[in-house]
Amino acid sequence: MTCAERFNLEGRVALVTGAGSGLGRQFAETLAKAGATVVLAARRRNKLEETAQSIADKGGKAICVDLDVTDSASVRDCFAEAESSAGIADILVNNSGISREGFLVDLSEEDWDAVIDTNLKGVFLVAQAAARAMIKAEKPGSIINIASVLGFRVAKMLSSYIAAKSGVVNLTKTMALEWARYGIRVNAIAPGYFLTEINEHFFKTDAAKQMLVQIPMLHLSPQTAMKQLLSLLMASLSHLGIFAPVTPTVDECTAEYVLGVHFAGPLASFTDCDRSRADTTTPSSSEKM
Known about the structure:
The chain is α/β, with parallel strands linked by helices. The protein is 46% helix and 13% strand. The chain has a single domain, classed as Rossmann fold. It has helices at residues 3-6, 22-33, 45-57, 72-86, 109-136, 159-179, 206-213, 225-234, 252-259, 272-280, 285-288; strands at 13-17, 37-42, 61-66, 91-94, 141-146, 184-191, 261-264. A seven-stranded mixed sheet has the order 3-2-1-4-5-6-7, sandwiched between helices. Helix 6 links the parallel strand 5 (141-146) and strand 6 (184-191). Helix 2 (22-33) runs parallel beside helix 3, helix 2 crosses helix 8 and helix 4 runs parallel beside helix 5 (109-136). The chain is globular and about 50 Å long.
């Protein structure tokens, strides 16, 4: 198989949440360029249409579907519409995310719930819907959850975001363990510091300037850096589990700033016992669906 063939997604259907802007738009355009039909899903329809137009201008195929990842009914309707219009999605990029800043003693329950519901519950609901569809159709596929370096470390004023992204890291490992038997690969990308709509206001502050001085490159990573990583995860060789390491083998701080990513791969949480159980355990009736 040639390199081009490994990265060819012709005939595949990819659903990207939060595809209206930022990394979500980058991911959607990357998948469309590789030949996939891309389902763009988010709450802001006008932003989705901008992404769809950008993809169409480059000769790609995309459809827009309304989605609130915190609402199970909305998730169900999104997948039904996507399947009707494009077919069963065998690629999912779980990208939707928000942030709320505040010290723990000041953080409101409303803000806490908004972040946890979007960044953690939303990942669960959307991935579950995607896996159920693939399992029912006996169709292998790939799920990529977008975590964060803050899923591996702490910072002030971002407690709800950190709690959610930490949850995404271990949820990804559990998904990978349970769904490997169905041919569904599950990975997580944990980006470092990129300029997005979520954090653009922060990077205009003095605190951000002080943080940038600590980064060896002295600047933020470009959003385009994630394109290559996404393509690699979509390649036919990614089933080999080459993205397993969660903790870098070099100095952790340097790895986060220079590489900008951590990986949570399909074998990241497997012990020998886990591998044996994953290979031999017979799915329950509920798992068979």
